[in-house]
Amino acid sequence: MLTEKRERTLEMAKLSSTYATSDFVYHGLVLPFLLLSSFSFQLASCGSIVKFLPGFEGPLPFLLETGYVGVGESDDVQTFYYFIESENNPKEDPLMLWLTGGPGCSALSGLVFEIGPLAFKYEEYNGSLPNLVLRPHSWTKVSSIIFVDLPVSTGFTYATTESASQRSDWMLVHHVHQFLRKWLIDHPNFLSNQVYIGGDSYSGIPIPVIVQEISQGNEKGVQPWINLRGYLLGNAATTRKEKNYKIPFAHGMGLISDELYESLQKNCKGEYINVDTRNLLCYRDMESFDKATSGLNHAYILDPSCEWLDTETSWRRSLIKKYPGKKLLNTLLKLPLLSCRSYVYFLCGYWANDDNVRNALHIRKGSIGKWHRCNINIPFKNDISSSYDYHVNLSKKGYRSLIYSGDHDMEIPFLATQAWIRSLNYSIVDDWRQWQTNGQVAGYTRTYSNRMTFATVKGGGHTAPEYKPEECFAMYSRWISNTPL
To answer: Which residues in the chain are classed under CATH 3.40.50.1820?
Structure first.
């Protein structure tokens, strides 16, 4: 499917010409902010096939390409991506662009912990490179996926100028849009494939906006035309008021008493975000709520709460060789327990910071320092307050959507997602019912007349595929093929 040399000149000329006459304005920003006319000078993309990965035995049994696409002013944001071709029928199967949440969590996190074909082997760290194994329920069994490191300073994506290092919701939207059109020019064999945009958690804010911007670009005749069909979101932020639903979720799960729940409702009147300290009764109740839910893993209330420090590269192997004792090793690394789900997050960090791994992934030397799974401490401007109105716009345009929630997630409870979907006020075409895998209940689902499907994943956490991979693969493969859940 991927050719070594691709004909680009004609497509670049078309794209440059189209954008040169475009009159797009988004959020007070003129679309030439993207400087897509620079396509006439260079595509600024570079991809390489990866046949072997350190930690994985033998050649990869699927096609993996990694590379960079320049976006932003003068391509001063070098966007890193992992592209995995469908293991089924790449010529016909859909193409999905996937964004991990955060903002600032690497695409590698989505690839190895959620929906990709690789996973880290759960085994105690002994100083050697962590091992990779195949994931049997990879979404690449039914679609090609581009895992993208955005916004800037996420994963291996870096800025070449200080001004390009600025981060915001709208910049992320523009960069993803620009990335996809440029990537498709460089991969013309995928121009006719159906395209979906997917992601989870924070990505519920930018993705509906990205879909709308791509759609409007198509309507304006921007080339290359993108065969956009819809989007999917998991445990997704939408209104930024999801915390209001933590209280009824906690009550329904038996985490707080009936009396405290009734008092919270009475004294806070349903508003639990930025509580006014002058409302002493509400403030007191919120303190009681925080105390009652402290020590819980809010991402998955069934898991233990595991805290650890991200210091996996602050030491040298020589220390381990000199002091092989596990007690000292754990002190140096401040590791989570092996029984903790976050243990593999540590393994991932050590793996991604290994020089041999970076060479295999074709990471540009000196482009970034330490790799972090999530770079969430870098300043980020939240200039899109809600994505709700964009869901409304996309519904009118007839795009398909799958909105799913792990039902044991207290970070963004399924109740919050149900509430904004219900307020869209679309009629129900397939009412609340079970959906199953292997003859067992995997969750509950409802479909609306705007082609939106909502599904819960029974026993799922904040990133549902991480906790229920088999069930989520069944959900995705059915939905992407237009089959009822």
So the answer is: 1-252+355-485
Residues 6+ apart with CB under 8 A from 334: 308, 309, 311
Do 154 and 106 meet the contact criterion of CB atoms below 8 Å apart? yes
Place of tokens 């016909």: 92
The amino acid sitting at 372 is H
Whole-Å CA distances, 55 to 138, 189, 352? 19, 31, 11
- In the DSSP assignment, the letter for residue 223 is S
Dist. CA 282–CA 263, nearest whole Å? 8
Which residue in 59, 88, 62 sits closest to 480, CA to CA?
Answer: 88
Answer yes or no: are the C-beta atoms of 179 and 185 closer than 8 Å.
Answer: no
Q: Is the pLDDT reported for residue 288 higher than 50? A: yes
What secondary structure letter does DSSP report for 131?
Answer: P
Between the CA of residue 424 and those of 42, 74, 91, 319, 482, what are the distances in Å? 43, 40, 36, 58, 22
Residue, of 179 and 8, whose pLDDT is higher: 179
Would you place residue 310 in the very low, low, confident or very high pLDDT band (cuts 50, 70, 90)? low
Task: Please report, for residues 67, 76, 297, 362, 374, the alpha-carbon distance to residue 366 in angstroms, rounded to integers and kept in the order given.
Answer: 15, 16, 36, 12, 19
CA distance 309 to 180: 35
| Bridge partner residues of 67 (DSSP) | 47, 81
Residues identified as active-site: 201, 409, 462
As a whole number, the mean pLDDT across the chain is 87
Q: What is the pLDDT of residue 333?
A: 52
For residue 435, list its beta bridge partners.
Answer: 443
CA angle 456, 459, 461 (to 5 degrees): 80
Q: How many residues are there in the chain?
A: 485
Mean pLDDT value of segment 223-233:
97
Q: Hey, is 269 helix, strand or coil?
A: coil
CATH of domain 1-252+355-485: 3.40.50.1820
Q: Which two tokens stand for residue 2?
A: 């991927």
